[in-house]
Specification:
CATH topology of the largest domain: FAD/NAD(P)-binding domain
Bound molecules: flavin-adenine dinucleotide
Strand content: 25-35%
CATH class of the largest domain: Alpha Beta
Oligomer: single chain
Order of helices and strands: EHEHEHHEEHEEEHEEEEEHEEEEHHEEEH
Structural class: alpha+beta
Largest sheet: 8 strands, mixed
Helix content: 25-40%
């Protein structure tokens, strides 16, 4: 592979693809390398893709708003079909956490998010037939919802390539090339490629790749079980829902064709939940994990028996790549020059990926964005005694 690029992006999931797009539109000559034959087929294809601005920290709320804007404007930005389903998002709060949710919502509004608090009597229009007991309030974001991850990754890459970037699938980076205190390129089976900087966006595989250059990423992995269901249309949710009362999440899967009179619905277990250890080297296949499926059905049965009993169209297993404070690693590290991290999505990285990509590219070009400080997401934050807190915990950051 000749013609060394200025920047190499490792990984063609949502993080790498959006970075290639942002670097290219900033005028940077970038090359993306993806190990698989296709783009977006690993964790990004397993995401629920829920788009919300209900976060604990003002900075992350601003990133979620910016990420949603980029998904909303995706056709104009990339020339690709729409990926955002802005059907709405509802957070269901219990008597125990409703005051926390109200405080979060007030903060969200002060950052520019539109959120309406609604009484439990409104639940039926979002989750038809669902029981209301135990629900203290609903928090409705009209223009949130969910997005289709694989078309998003493919669209970002296609637009970047049209604008002059290079993207190679089927090329696995075997290690980072380190000379002294700097990363100077990557090794692949086709040979070495040198570059001024490397963006490490290899998802759950970022940790072993960083280790090849002596950089330790404090990331752990958990197996996540979701189910795609075929649900009677009259019982299907009409929006994306984070149900913090029973700890489940769900949204209609609008692109999934099921039998007449039925709708595709994606369901998963929300926080708090168990986090069974996962291993990127033994990436989960498509067999459901019975214990996790039973737990998910038990939680759904509390309020939505039609979902608990619904036929499974397909199980979906993915990995969370979890940092110590459930927030990603972004940007350079003091440990070594030439390495830009973009990894550790911690189970909620999809919706903020386009904003994070913009932050990474802007910082690289020396023109930081005004809505967030990439330094707050540095790997080095823990050594400085800093870490993100969150209202609820886990990936409900
Ligand atoms: C079940 C589940 C549900 C989720 N739900 C949500 C949600 O509702 N909302 C939300 O915001 N987030 C959610 N997330 C989190 C979100 O999906 C992830 O944070 C995000 O998709 C990770 O993207 P990525 O690009 O880092 O990783 P990936 O999509 O895994 O991409 C990494 C890419 O790097 C490639 N790669 C690996 N090693 C190499 C190598 N050596 N050389 C070259 N390429 C390599 C891989 O093949 C892969 O394509 C969820 C995650 C899971 C697992």
């Amino acid at each position: 592979m000749s013609n060394s690029p200025e920047v190499i992006v490792i990984g063609g999931g949502i993080m790498g693809s959006s970075t290639l797009f942002e670097l290219t539109r900033s005028g940077v000559d970038a090359l993306l390398l993806e190990a698989d034959p296709t783009f977006g087929g690993r964790d990004s294809s397993k995401t629920a893709g829920i788009i919300r601005t209900h976060y604990s920290n003002p900075e992350v709320v601003r990133m979620a708003i910016r990420g949603r804007e980029i998904f909303r404007d995706f056709p104009q930005l990339t020339g690709a079909p729409p990926v955002l389903h802005d059907i709405g998002y509802v957070f269901l709060a219990s008597a125990e956490n409703v005051e926390q949710a109200r405080a979060n919502t007030a903060m969200q509004r002060s950052e520019g998010a539109q959120v309406d608090e609604l009484p439990p009597s409104e639940l039926d229009r979002f989750a038809p037939g669902a029981a209301r007991d135990g629900i203290a309030a609903l928090f409705h974001e009209r223009v949130s919802g969910y997005a289709d991850p694989v078309p998003a990754a493919e669209g970002f890459i296609a637009a970047a390539v049209r604008a002059g970037a290079r993207a190679r699938s089927g090329v696995r980076v075997s290690r980072l090339l380190r000379e002294g205190d700097a990363i100077v390129g990557v090794a692949t089976p086709e040979g070495e490629i040198r570059a001024s900087a490397i963006v490490l966006a290899a998802g759950a595989w970022s940790k072993p790749l960083a280790a090849t250059a002596g950089v330790d990423l404090p990331i752990t992995f958990s197996v996540e079980q979701e189910l795609l269901l075929s649900v009677p249309s009259a019982s299907a949710p009409t929006v994306s829902i984070s149900n913090s009362v029973d700890a489940v999440y769900e949204h209609p899967e609008l692109g999934l064709a099921v039998a007449p009179g039925r709708m595709g619905v994606l369901v998963g277990t929300g926080f708090p939940k168990s986090y069974p250890a996962g291993d990127p080297e033994r990436y989960p296949d498509q067999d459901a994990l019975p214990d996790l499926v039973d737990e998910l059905r038990r939680r759904l049965a509390i309020r939505q028996p039609a979902l608990a009993e619904a036929e499974v169209v397909a199980p979906r297993l993915g990995l969370y790549d979890i940092t110590p404070d459930w927030h990603p690693f972004l940007g350079p590290t003091d440990q070594v020059a030439g390495l830009i991290l973009f990894t550790g999505g911690s189970g909620h990285g999809f919706k903020i990926a386009p904003a994070m990509a913009e932050m990474v590219a802007a910082a690289y070009c020396g023109k930081p964005v005004d809505y967030a400080d990439i330094g707050h997401f540095s790997l080095d934050r823990f050594a400085r005694g800093e870490r993100f807190g969150s209202t609820y915990g886990g990936n409900r950051a």
